[in-house]
Design brief:
single chain; mainly alpha; 2 domains; 6 helices; about 95% helix
Length: about 425
């Protein structure tokens, strides 16, 4: 019964080991599910580069959290591996205990053979004792035949009674001694026979019980071998799962490395954008200076236009005077030539200023094209640059309106000059006619 209880305890340990294996596989499956969730989160985070560009701080925070989760997961994997190693150690210990149990069972099963050997030795000793008893009986028979001979001799030698009695007493003492020895041997033989008769049924019962116990032990050992095979299968599956999990962790580490490279490139891109913004600020400052110069130029142009209007008014007044004076053929040609010269000088100045303004507008457009190209290369929303570009475009539209008005004014001046030329031509014709 003690041996059976030990076997039951030993066979219950593989079930505990299998339960531990199932718990370990459950933890491994949970870890794999957590890694898959982490990978899906990382895929969502990495599938939107524009969101990563606009929300770089959030991405860095999420990546740090992902790294922390992966480290926690690696710690749990290490713990799971330690549990597997502990489980393997427990299995080895259980196998050692089973081997010890088998040795105990073999020792127990060897005892009946020893008992049978003892029975054979006992039977041999009993046979020897019986043979000795038979020998003693033969001796007794031989000795009992001797008194009759002695009596005949006593009768024959009646003349020697003392000698005969002495010899008879000696012989009788020998016979009595032999009889007591026979009684002792007979008692020992009976005790041996009783013990043999008592021991044989017990030995048969013990042998049958041991055979039953061996059968049960063989069944338990077969079940234990099956459990060990199942445990080895589960361990193989666990090793495969752990290998897949290691591959998954390697993929996650590769993905994290790629994410770190992308973040480094993004930091470089941010640095380049900041440099571009600095350059843009310098260009915008220069553009503001240029716009200020343009505004100054426009104010100068307005002054020139006002002066030109005054000049045109003077020319018109002069023409009216010329018309009056031509009637009397008293036209101051020198004053008219001076006026025409002043008008031509003013037109040349206006042309130079218009050329400088066109150059300034070309520089502004070149700067805007460069900013557009650089913003397309970086493919990111440059809010500040866009605002500046919007302001510059608004300013350019205003400048375009001013230029259109200025060109209209120039057209009017040119028309007026053509009229003046016609008037001068007519005046010269009139002068030639007058001459």
């Amino acid at each position: 019964e003690t041996l059976l209880s030990v076997i039951e305890v030993e066979t219950s340990e593989p079930e505990t080991l299998v339960s531990d294996d199932e718990t370990l596989l459950t933890s491994v499956d949970a870890a794999v599910a957590e890694v898959e969730t982490l990978l899906s989160v990382i895929e969502v985070e990495t599938s939107e580069p524009e969101t990563l560009v606009s929300d770089d701080e959030t991405l860095l925070t999420s990546v740090d959290a992902a790294v922390a989760e992966v480290e926690t997961l690696l710690t749990s994997v290490d713990a799971a591996v330690a549990d597997v190693e502990t489980l393997l150690t427990s299995v080895d210990a259980a196998v050692a205990e089973v081997e010890t149990l088998l040795s105990v069972i073999e020792a127990e099963t060897s005892e009946p053979e020893t008992l049978v050997s003892d029975d054979e030795t006992l039977l041999t000793s009993v046979d020897a004792a019986v043979a000795e008893v038979e020998t003693l009986l033969n001796v007794i028979e031989a000795e009992t035949s001797e008194p009759e001979t002695l009596l005949s001799e006593a009768e024959t030698f009646a003349s020697e009674p003392d000698t005969v009695l002495t010899v008879f007493d000696v012989k009788l003492a020998i016979v009595e001694t032999l009889a007591s020895e026979i009684e002792v041997l007979t008692s020992d033989a009976e005790m041996l026979l009783t013990e043999v008769e008592t021991f044989c049924p017990k030995a048969d019962t013990l042998l049958s019980e041991l055979e039953i116990l061996l059968t049960v032990a063989e069944v338990e050992i077969a079940e234990f071998d099956t459990l060990v095979s199942d445990v080895e299968t589960l361990l193989t599956v666990a090793e495969v799962e752990i290998a897949e999990f290691d591959t998954l962790v390697s993929d996650v580490e590769t993905l994290l490395t790629v994410a770190e490279v992308e973040i480094a490139e993004f930091d470089t891109l941010v640095s380049d954008v900041e440099t571009l913004l600095t350059v843009a600020e310098v260009e915008i400052a220069e553009l503001d200076t240029s716009v200020s110069e343009v505004e100054t130029l426009l104010s100068v142009i307005d002054v020139e236009i006002a002066e030109f209007d005054v000049l045109v008014s003077d020319v018109e007044t002069l023409l009216s005077v010329i018309d009056v004076e031509t009637k009397d053929f008293e036209m101051p040609l020198t004053k008219v030539e001076l006026v025409v010269s002043d008008v031509e000088t003013l037109l040349s100045v206006i042309d130079v200023e218009i050329a400088e303004f066109d150059v300034l507008v070309s520089d502004v457009e070149t700067l805007l094209s460069v900013i557009d190209v650089e913003t397309k290369d970086f493919e990111m929303p440059l809010t500040k640059v866009e605002l500046v570009v919007s302001d510059v475009e608004t300013l350019l539209s205003v400048i375009d309106v001013e230029i259109a008005e200025f060109e209209t004014l120039i057209c009017e001046v040119e028309t007026l000059l053509s009229v003046i030329d016609v008037e001068i031509s007519e005046f010269e014709t009139s002068l030639s006619t007058w001459a």
